[in-house]
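hiii so um. not sure if this is the right channel but i have a protein structure encoded as tokens and i wanna go backwards to a sequence. like what aa goes where. can anyone help
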């Protein structure tokens, strides 16, 4: 059992070390400022992940989840799926600047965007902040609704994937339609993150369910399972890489990676990199684009080590909170963040990447990040252990969200970048902890289930 509990830990450590190897020996001539401090921090963070995970799997938990409660969740999930569908439908119209349900116009925009992703991406980015919510479909009322619904929208989507097999045909159609609308909205505006937020958790959910079943299988069945998992991961990787390559090419900049002037924030390519020797020439463009995404955040972090820390008191770790406070309260948190102050080195906060460590450091300093990383790994291990021991859907959802956060550690603090993921995390965490403790919420859920069963 212990081996099963530590498998995600091995994957996390391998992944983060791999990204650091690309940072050192990859296709870019990254400069590491304060190298002793920088690499000392990397060692500290990896150690805290291991230490936190070990402590998390040792934590005893109340395994009080009952599969009978699935009926209760599905009962309340159904109307939420309808609301989520309406949310995605209205927002795809708003995304393209429509003030009414102009389906013909929307179809034309989506089709054009799919074939001209770069142009559509630039148009969309330019429109952000220029169009008032009052001028879009649903007006300011729907803008307020968006702010409220984003607290649970992602959670509802993940639960619909978890319970997909148990839904009736009607709600399966609603779920698939919601997912397709979301994918089209992002792809037709040349962005990858929306598609990734759907594919990545879906893979995690599917693999977790298979892996849990395999715990009681014999060795031969487990070998077949590993082959299935490898095929699924391989196909998913190829699909994501293909879409990523397609969207990056559509934006244009990466097409000039062979030019001697090509650079990211003044950092040029390292043509002598071993990766250029082992990767086929036909994949050079994908290599450069992928390495840029996975490593420039580390360079941004090293730049942060050149300037003094100014605490942002819980606001700086989230791009959404920084911009919210800047718009409605004060811009001190935004201006004092590492991301804003790195502009003096030519590292644009709206264009360049910053690792999750840099975002969290805004609030607690780079040494303090170690404590947050420990807590993160501790929570991750507890949730993963709960998935193996129970069928708690909130534990599975939490594992999906934390896996998303891990994947983006070299790039940004993805979990707190937008209210869509940030609120999903906190709501999921609250619901999960409520189901793990003998609280009033737990007792209330049992009484509700009894009423549902009687009906």
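sure thing!! here u go:
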């Amino acid at each position: 059992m212990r081996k099963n509990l530590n498998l995600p830990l091995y994957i996390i450590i391998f992944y983060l070390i791999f990204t650091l190897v690309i940072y050192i020996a990859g296709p870019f001539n990254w400069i590491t400022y304060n190298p002793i401090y920088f690499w000392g921090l990397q060692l500290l963070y990896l150690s805290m992940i291991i230490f936190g995970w070990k402590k998390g799997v040792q934590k005893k938990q109340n395994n009080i989840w009952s599969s009978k409660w699935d009926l209760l969740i599905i009962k309340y999930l159904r109307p939420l799926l309808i609301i989520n569908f309406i949310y995605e439908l209205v927002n795809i119209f708003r995304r393209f600047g429509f003030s009414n349900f102009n389906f013909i116009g929307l179809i034309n925009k989506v089709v054009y965007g799919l074939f001209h992703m770069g142009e559509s991406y630039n148009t969309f980015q330019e429109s952000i902040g220029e169009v008032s919510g009052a001028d879009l479909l649903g007006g300011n009322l729907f803008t307020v609704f968006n702010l409220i619904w984003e607290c649970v929208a992602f959670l509802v989507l993940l639960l619909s994937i978890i319970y997909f097999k148990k839904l009736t045909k009607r709600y399966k159609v609603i779920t698939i339609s919601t997912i397709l609308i979301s994918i089209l909205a992002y792809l037709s505006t040349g962005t990858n993150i929306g598609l990734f937020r759907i594919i990545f958790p879906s893979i995690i959910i599917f693999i977790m369910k298979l892996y849990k079943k395999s715990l009681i299988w014999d060795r031969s069945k487990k070998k077949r399972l590993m082959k299935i998992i490898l095929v699924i991961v391989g196909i998913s990787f190829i699909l994501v890489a293909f879409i990523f390559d397609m969207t990056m090419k559509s934006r244009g900049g990466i097409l000039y990676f062979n030019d001697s002037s090509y650079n990211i924030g003044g950092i040029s390519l390292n043509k002598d990199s071993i990766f250029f020797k082992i990767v086929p020439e036909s994949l050079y463009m994908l290599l450069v684009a992928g390495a840029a995404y996975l490593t420039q955040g580390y360079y941004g972090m090293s730049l942060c080590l050149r300037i003094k820390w100014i605490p942002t008191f819980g606001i700086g770790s989230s791009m959404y909170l920084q911009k919210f406070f800047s718009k409605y309260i004060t811009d001190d948190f935004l201006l004092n963040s590492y991301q804003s102050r790195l502009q003096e080195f030519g590292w644009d906060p709206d264009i360049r990447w910053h690792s999750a460590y840099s975002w969290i450091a805004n609030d607690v300093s780079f040494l303090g990040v170690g404590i947050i990383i420990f807590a993160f790994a501790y929570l991750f291990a507890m949730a993963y252990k709960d998935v193996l021991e129970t069928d708690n859907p909130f534990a599975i959802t939490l594992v999906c969200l934390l896996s998303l956060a891990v994947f983006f550690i070299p790039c940004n603090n993805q979990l707190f970048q937008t209210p869509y993921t940030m609120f999903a995390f906190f709501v999921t965490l609250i619901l999960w902890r409520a189901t793990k403790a003998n609280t009033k919420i737990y007792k209330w859920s049992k009484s509700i289930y009894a009423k549902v069963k009687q009906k």
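oh and The beta strands are 263-264, 267-268.
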